[in-house]
Amino acid sequence: MRRRDVTAGLLLAAAAQPLWAQEPAKQRRIAIVIPAGPITSISDTGVRAWRAFFEELRRSGDVEGQNLTIERYSGEGRPEGYGDLAREVVDRKPEVIVASNDALAKAVRAATGAIPIVWIGGDPIQAGLATSLAHPGGNITGVTVYAGTEIRGKRLQILKEAVPAASKAAYLTTRVSQAAEGQQLRDAGQRLQISVIELPLEEVTSTAIQRAFAEIAQQQSDAVIVNSNSLLFPYRQLIVELVEKGRLSALYPWREYVEAGGLMAYASDNRELWRRMADDVHQILNGAKPGDIPIFQPTKFEFVINLKAAKAIGLAFPPALLASADEVIE
């Protein structure tokens, strides 16, 4: 009798096993908020930063459509609407919110002190987002692209080496960027004997960018430096085309501008930064507190040159500058 009971139990267990195996994976839910551009740009087939982000999530076992749901939002280039957008996102109660600039992160944090935020942006301490890089505290962590004031001087120095005769450079920026950035470039310009004229966009639209380049032409600038603000990033193709149309030399803050046809970029590796962000998301989904996860700061920068863009404006790079490039695109 006891043997039959055991046999029956084994049969029941065998019958139930397929049901256990088919039990769906636990669904996690995150929100990704970008400051501008279409939400379709948040894709693993788009720019390499997002591709790296999704690849790292998958490597960690977080796969959209399987055990991960991702809600996508865009601020559509309107900082004045970030507060309303942040509240909309928070009302949906995702487990983690990924915010891709300082202004968005501050708006989200103002809307919630409970939902973890993984952010990428400038100096988190100066922006009031964290108490320190090692121990951010609160409900936020992520990646800072801020590498000190020296980075801006370095970019201007590269531009001067590429075009020794340049005496005037336009600095394309936005009104939400920190005023200190323009001053740091002007200070560096004094040392390098090149004047820097700041052009802060009141709003970031195609029309506003075209107006800025009309002003650059009127001022007879020799070159352009583009701010790293993420509001400008969705317009990189337009900016590159306007630079070439004006036969200007340009130094860009991200490699993707060069991939779009731009002349030069001196920047940290976006892939590394976004892989770090994906790892932060994975840790938080598995119980880590964002305030305990150190904020990552890049230490390696790459200098990329586009020879095709140089040929289009009749620029010949000095051999020493070419030799210093980490990559030369033919």
Query: What is Rg?
Result: 24 Å
Name the CATH superfamily classification of the largest domain: Response regulator
Q: Which fold name corresponds to the CATH topology of the largest domain? A: Rossmann fold
Helix share, percent: 40-55%
Taken in chain order, the helices and strands follow as: HEHEHEHEEHEHEHEHEHEHEHHE
Which spans of ≥5 residues are poorly predicted at pLDDT below 50? Answer: 1-16
Biggest β-sheet, characterized? 7 strands, mixed
Architecture per CATH nomenclature, i.e. the level-2 architecture of the largest domain: 3-Layer(aba) Sandwich
Number of helices: 12
Question: What's this entry about, in short?
Answer:
The protein is an alpha/beta fold.
Task: Provide an overview of this structure.
With 330 residues, this protein is of the alpha/beta class. It has two domains: 28-146 and 270-292, Response regulator (Rossmann fold, 3-Layer(aba) Sandwich); 150-268 and 301-329, 3-Layer(aba) Sandwich (Rossmann fold), CATH 3.40.50.2300. Helix content is 41%, strand content 19%. Helix 2 (48-59) links the parallel strand 1 and strand 2 (68-74). Helix 2 packs parallel to helix 10 and helix 5 (150-162) crosses helix 6. The termini are far apart. Mean pLDDT is 89; it is low at 1-16.
